[in-house]
Amino acid sequence: MNTAASLEVRDLRVGYGSLEVLHGLSLNVQPGEIVSLIGANGAGKSTLLNAISGVVPVRGGHVLLDGKDIRALKAPDVARAGLRQVPEGRRVFADLTVEDNLLLGGYGTTTHHQRGERLEEIFDLFPRLKERRWQPGGTLSGGEQQMLAIGRALVASPRLLMLDEPSMGLAPLVTRDVFALIGRLRNELGIGILLVEQNARAALKMSDRTYVLTLGEIQQHGTSADLLRDPKVLAAFLGEETAPN
Amino acid sequence: MSSFEMLVQVMVSGLMVGFIYGLAALGFTIVYNATQIVNFANGEYLMIGGMIVAVLAQSTLDLPIYLSVLMAVGATGILGYLTQTVIIRNTKSRDPMTLVMLTIGLAVAMRGLVSFLFGRDVKFVPDFGVFDVILIGNIYIPSQAIWVFITFIAVTLGIWFLFNRTLIGKAMQAVSLDPRAAALCGINPGNLAAMSFALAAGIGALAGAVSAPIQPVFYENGVFLGLKGFAAAVAGGFGNPAGAILGGLIIGLVESLAAGYGASGYKDAIAFVLLILILLVRPAGLIGKAHVSRV
Question: By the number of CB atoms within 10 A of the CB, which of A93, A114, B66, B170 ranks highest?
Answer without folding.
Answer: A93
